[in-house]
Amino acid sequence: MSRRKAAAAAGGSMSAMEEETADQELRRGPWTLEEDNLLMSYIACHGEGRWNLLARCSGLKRTGKSCRLRWLNYLKPDIRRGNLTAEEQLVILELHAKWGNRWSRIAQHLPGRTDNEIKNYWRTRVQKQARQLKVDANSAVFRDAVRSYWMPRLLHDMAAAASSMAVPPPLMQQNGHCHGGGGSSQSQSPVISDQLQDTANDVPAPARGGYEYYCCPPVEPSPSASTSGSTPAAALQPAPVPCFSELNWNDQYYYPGGAEIDGGAGALDSAALLGSLGLDGLDLGPAAESFYSDATLLDYLNSSCTSTAMNTIMSAGDGGNYYNHCGGGAMVDRDHHGTTASAACQLGTARKLAGEWGGGGI
DNA sequence: AAATCCGACAACCGCATCGGA
DNA sequence: TTCCGATGCGGTTGTCGGATT
Predict the structure, then answer these.
(1) CA-to-C1' distance for A335 and B11, Å?
(2) In 3D, which of A131, A147, A100 has the Cα closest to residue A278?
(3) Cβ-Cβ contacts under 8 Å for A105 (sequence gap 6 or more)
């Protein structure tokens, strides 16, 4: 309910004349090119902030709030446009599991992305999947499904992107401390992430930022770790927490359903898979078809996690490391990393991530 | 071809928090 | 300490364009 409607409903603290005046004085709705130009030129001269003053002095018939929002969500030069990459989606899924609807906080770890954009992504994409499954997006069942199906698929997308680039994505970097000043990555440069972004979007390169937090999930800020007062170089230091690739990948988080992961088997049976994931109680119901047809589970498992992508990863840098990470080493025959094995090993990865999430509440 | 539906995203709104007077 | 304006955040709504009927 709008404020004016609320006022009217409450007995009307705003007179009709005031309403009319307000309507004449303040513009609402979509911004015009002229308004955008006016706002940008004002900020170019006076800088950001003091939004109410800006609104009064710039000639814009908008509220300070509206000006701020337009600038932060649309006009600011470092805003990234275009679809979220698999990497970014993975970050969102991970951080949302960790922090919930803290959109602004999540956005801080996706350079160039706004809280509004992330929020919209969650509502339109993630919650859509939850609706199709007839479960709550915050339920444990749905989180498990995300961990077991969606995240592996995103990992696969990243692997495919890496394959097309002939370099592995940063997730697969060895020694954990991905990129950004640590200097411990042995085979990849810090720009790999950006390279991947550059192939994934039509966004000008200067608008891109790094994704160090994908590999190194952020931790609660501490006074000593605050960016204020730290040098730019220090700000690039990886957070002192384990990266995905730093986890104890030799744990036995293999496909637990008893199926051999040797690459010789065909497509996994969906019921067996659900059972193996501890989701045998999950009734996908009539939504299952659309869920699958959206290339969310079986399509993913049966399709393009090809040996080509895996071979690329294997042959590059620490690909073998990733391979062992995924399959727990002994569980996967390195010579038979076909579709099933690849999918299953990524499921293993997802399960490991689920474990790192704690498996419990958000 | 027209009507309807639906997804994506920009924008608005209310409330909370912060900081200065 | 209190007040008040500025700012930030998250929920919700409105709009538009493409897809479907």
Answers:
(1) 54
(2) A147
(3) A95, A99
Task: Enter the pTM of the model.
Answer: 0.52
CA nearest to A185, candidates A131, A128, A236, A148: A236
Question: Closest nucleotide (CA of A107 to C1')?
Answer: C9
Token duo for residue A292: 């699958």
Say how far apart CA A30 and CA A33 lie, in whole Å.
10
Extract the tokens encoding A93. Answer: 């899924």
Half-sphere exposure of A20 (CA within 13 A, CB side): 3
Which residues from the 86-145 window of protein chain A have CB within 7 angstroms of nucleic acid chain B? Answer: 116-117, 119-121, 123-125, 128
Contact A100/A362 with Cβ under 8 angstroms? yes
Summarised one tens digit per residue, pLDDT across range A173-226 is: 333 233 322 222 222 222 223 322 333 333 333 333 333 333 333 333 333 333
Q: What are the φ/ψ torsions at residue A114 (nearest 5 degrees)? A: -100, 160
Determine the straight-line distance between the first and last CA of chain A, rounded to whole angstroms.
31
CA distance A132 to A128: 6
A338 CA from B10 C1′ (Å):
44
Report the C-alpha gap between A287 and A142 in whole angstroms: 13
Give, in order, the Cα–Cα distances in Å from A313 to each of A214, A324, A354.
Answer: 18, 12, 23
Is residue A344 within a helix (H) or strand (E), and if so which, with residue range?
helix A339-357
User: Residue A75: which of A106, A44, A111, A110 has the closest Cα?
Assistant: A44
Which residues of A spanning 36-65 put their CB closer than 7 angstroms to strand B? 62-63, 65
* Chain centroid, CA A317 distance in Å: 25
Domains, chain A, in order of start with CATH, read: 24-75 (1.10.10.60), 81-220+231-362 (no CATH)
C-alpha A258, offset from chain centre: 32
pLDDT for position A25:
64
Give phi and psi for A243, each to the nearest 5: -80, 165
Nearest in space to A243 (alpha carbons), one of A118, A91, A348: A91
Q: Which of A293, A307, A298 is nearest to A336 (CA)?
A: A307
Amino acid symbol at A360: G
